[in-house]
Amino acid sequence: MKPTLLVLAAGMGSRYGGLKQMDGVGPSGETIIDYSIYDAVNAGFGKVVYIVRESFKEQFEQTVREKYSNVRCFDGSPLEFVFVTQELDKIPQGFETNPERQKPWGTAHAVLMAKDVIHEPFAVINGDDYYGKESFRILGGWLRDHQDSKGLYSIVGFQLNHTLSESGGVSRGICFYDELQHLTDIAEHLNIAREEDGKVYGDNSVNGASHVELDGTALCSMNMWGFTPDYFDLSLEVFKDFLKTNGTDLKKEFYIPYAIDCIIKDGKAECDVLSTPSHWFGVTYKADRPGVVAKFASLAEEGVYPTPLYK
Length: 311
Known about the structure:
Blueprint: E1 4-8, H1 32-42, E2 47-52, H2 54-67, E3 80-85, H3 107-112, E4 122-126, E5 129-130, H4 133-145, E6 152-159, E7 170-177, E8 183-194, E9 200-204, E10 212-214, E11 219-227, H5 230-246, H6 256-265, E12 270-276, E13 281-282, H7 289-301
Parallel strand pairs: 1-2, 1-4, 2-3, 6-12
Antiparallel strand pairs: 4-11, 5-13, 6-11, 7-8, 7-11, 8-9, 9-10
């Protein structure tokens, strides 16, 4: 069984300023998504589903198909691609939205857009985040081990120390879990940064506490999830409940952690918290770009990745 990789690539990156999913940051102009695809294929994934916006779907699809035309899976078969769009009007029948709303419905809504094209265990990642080889190996193995499971999902947790930006404070959801490594909560923290004393501080958005010291080894969510197909139906029901309350709101979004929290608390599923040794990095701010370019150059020099990545 070859799991599928679902790439969330519909966001335009307001803080970064532009379509960062197509920004070449590797030594030969590779994008961050290119590295994720490379790592996923080497971890045994066989299909990639992109969630994009209709406004750039044609350009994105043409670029992707040309770039990966020679990529083969571990069994020699060509890597399969599917492109699905996320738009505001793609909601269940019977619900109305505010015609002035422009903000997307969020990551959990984006995942639902793939309901009709994914029928196997799948991973979800952000298109503008670098997750590392080990993360894909760990998640790919979990998905293969749970191909016949229902009501059991997973999240790859990164050490908070391994996810900070040098360009400013970041928001992170810190994972809490029980003795079985089952997720119990994700607590959102804002303005997280390492300060001059070497310690990590942030604001807890749950209880309102500001500038509190955080455990740098705590596992946090970087939106890298593992699901089996039954997740679609469960999250769709949560989305309907969400729309009943927030359907006419201009800004509220339907995020994956919210959907998972509702599903867990309803007793319909559990979520394994997986730990990765990989360091996350990405272009949260435009000032992050030179550092990301330098990191990919270093990885190429060390032989971690070939350059060019695709020929």
